[in-house]
Amino acid sequence: MSSQIDHLLTENRRFAPSPEFAANAIGTAELYAQADADREAFWAEQARSLHWHTPFTEVLDWSNPPFAQWFTDGELNVAYNCLDRHVEAGNGDRVALLWEGEPGDERRITYAELTDEVKRAANVLEGLGVGHGDRVAIYMPMIPEAVAAMLAVARIGAIHSVIFGGFSADSLRSRIDDAGAKVVITADGGYRKGRVSPLKPAVDQALGDRGAGPQETVEHVLVVKRTGNEVSWDDDRDIWWHDAVPAASADHEARPFPAENPLFILYTSGTTGKPKGILHTSGGYLTQAAFTNKVVHDIHPESDVFWCTADIGWITGHSYVTYGPLANGATQVLYEGTPDTPHPGRWWELVEKYRVTILYTAPTAIRSFMKLGRAIPKKFDLSSLRLLGSVGEPINPEAWMWYRKIIGNKTAPIVDTWWQTETGAIMVSALPGVTETKPGSAQVPLPGIAIDVVDDDGNRVGNGNGGLLVITKPWPSMLRGIWGDPERFVETYWEKFQKQGYYFAGDGARLDEDGDVWFLGRVDDVMNVSGHRLSTTEIESALVGNEAVAEAAVVGASDETTGQAVVSFVIIKESYLAAHDPEGLAAQLRSWVGEQIGAIARPRDVYIVGELPKTRSGKIMRRLLRDVAEGREVGDTTTLADTAVMSIISAQVK
Ligand code: WT7
Q: Are 448 and 475 in contact (CB under 8 A)?
């Protein structure tokens, strides 16, 4: 952290938007003044750009904190807002999705076509007995049906839980169980890195491995045929999308639901081994997703081509692939595959081909392109790009400058957007037509958002100092809870600053002399690997679940490309060593974690050690292990029960 602080103290480059950009930008400086004058009136005005079947009269009910209700007596239909109303306004022929599969197949889907598909899918789901409040798990590749599936669930007032296609059958199982899903929507497979990545088999495995778990809740599995790989079939349970959806009626009325109707659950890693089901509701979530997409990404729906590269399995894909852009009636690129297949210029080829104007991606991707060199993007015409966005982790100034120069042709503003699964939408970011940007800083809270940087007791640290990021006022797209666990919701986010009533984000941050925010990474046992959140504890429990492992400790070590990398230290059981050859064990444990959680959680390094550094009360001192993993001199060891243990570990790691 100290090297980052040194860096930001010396960062004095500033980039103002061009006068043309500023003149045409949707987000203006007046928004700050309006929001400052009356925050609730400001959000009410943003909410009114949606279609309400029943207009709300109350903006915010904060009478029972931290359980907020926004626009509570209003009624709307989220899917209607993303689809029908654009068709009714005469924009049915506008392209909603410019989809490209990894092998190069293409589909252009207009708002009218997507509306039709969603209405049919909504009828299919209702025919399967899915109704208001029921949960539907979605485990899909990045194909148009994935977006249609989310909207079909929303349309009927049910709740989706999208599970990233890279998660294992085990992870899928626990998420399906936690939510009590009635239906799973999946595909036979998707294309990734030039190969078929099977999905339906993982669903079969998840549903087959009932074990000692609760009773099965899943009644049906709806399957899109994408890759044509062999899949097993249960005639009573499984239904092909291509049989059911086209045959269903295209008449489906979008019924109104209360603003606080749950829209989705999205699981994210916390500091314990059990992922949290973050719950979002309808009116406030859609208001802020659409508003931020409009002003931060400066979407002009008639002319822009937006591309958010995130998978729908993450919050970024929920808010800036499905809900924000479609609520705004925008045209966007949806790409199925990996950035380097079949060649390392694949993304830039897509930017050129579709004349993408706004690109929203993660620092980890930018750093890997940087590593490959400028010659690759330089082969393509990127002149359509007029705005660039970054999300998921702090972007280091070098990567920021490269992004601006090589991808943005030294003119496109860059917005570094800070937010979380829990916040639902962007919270801290420059406004591209207003803010003078600074490489490496996420800068300022958006209009209508109130944040601060405080010390451990909740006192503001003031400019020039570091501390903890807090959100001091409720916001429309805030999480409404953790599915099935209200106590954990209160404890995780609200207990630390209970006295002040602040939301604790779990991020360290620093305010510079201008009051701009610089994010410094997580302050808890949560890692950020390639912009994805992973819990040290969750990976540790996966490791100790292996028959060979007695104890495990996991740390996030800084990594040039992925931001942080998973590094694990394991103690092997004597009994296992007595009967097995330890050769190859580290590699086996890496793939074990991949099978238990998913490939993203696979440790970069597995070190087999004899002991772990613990305090007298038995707490593992991960800080010291991080020193080892990052090749630094080991820090203060005086609180260790056995101060010699670190030199033993260091020797074993070499
Ligand atoms: C955590 C949230 C928000 C969508 C993607 C990740 C880190 C996110 C930034 C940024 C510095 C960032 C934070 C945050 N983070 N964006 N622009 N600068 N850090 O969502 O998985 O819920 O992770 O990502 O540490 O707490 P998530």
A: yes
List the beta bridge partners of residue 135: 159
Q: How many angstroms separate the CA atoms of 275 and 267, rounded?
A: 6
Assess whether the C-beta atom of 522 lies below 6 angstroms from ligand 1: yes
Q: Where are the alpha helices (DSSP H) in 355-482?
A: 363-372, 375-378, 397-402
Task: Give yes or no for residue 601 having a pLDDT over 70.
Answer: yes
Q: Is 544 annotated as a binding residue?
A: yes
What pLDDT, on the 0 to 100 scale, is given for residue 8? 56
Stretch among 87-101, 525-539, 566-580 having the lowest mean pLDDT: 525-539
Tokens of 521: 């990474």
Distance CA 127, CA 174 (A): 26
Kindly state the helix (H) or strand (E) to which residue 222 belongs, with its residue range. Answer: strand 220-224
533 is an annotated ligand-binding site residue? yes
Pocket of ligand 1, candidates 1, 279, 451, 507: which has the most ligand atoms within 8 Å of its Cβ, to mutate? 507
- Tell me yes or no: is domain 530-653 CATH 2.40.280.10: no
Contact 512, 387 (CB under 8 A): no
* Angle formed by the axes of helices 111-127 and 144-155, nearest 10°: 60
Task: Kindly report whether the peptide bond that precedes residue 474 is cis, defined as omega within 30 degrees of 0.
Answer: no
As to burial, measured by CB atoms within 10 angstroms (0-12 exposed, 13-18 middle, 19+ buried), residue 259 is: buried
All residues at 6 or more sequence positions from 533 whose CB lies less than 8 Å from its CB, including other chains: 268, 269, 421, 526, 527
What are the tens digits of pLDDT across the range 321-344?
A: 999 999 999 999 999 999 999 999
pLDDT of residue 213: 67
Total residues found in the chain within this entry? 654
**Domain residue ranges in the chain:** 451-521, 530-653
CB count within 10 Å of CB 513 equals 8
| Topology of the domain comprising 451-521 | Luciferase; domain 3 (2.30.38)
Contact 365, 395 (CB under 8 A): no
Residue owning the nearest CA to atom 8 of ligand 1 = 392
Answer whether 417 contacts ligand 1 (Cβ < 6 A).
Answer: yes
Q: Is the CB of 420 under 6 A from ligand 1?
A: yes
Q: Average pLDDT of the chain?
A: 95
Ligand 1 neighbour 429 (Cβ under 6 A): no
Mean of the pLDDT values across residues 101-113?
98
The residue-averaged pLDDT of 284-294 equals 99
- The answer to whether 388 and 404 are in contact (CB under 8 A) is yes
Place of tokens 């829209």: 263
Q: Compute the distance between CA of residue 402 and CA of residue 387 in angstroms, rounded to an integer.
A: 14
Distance CA 420, CA 531 (A): 11
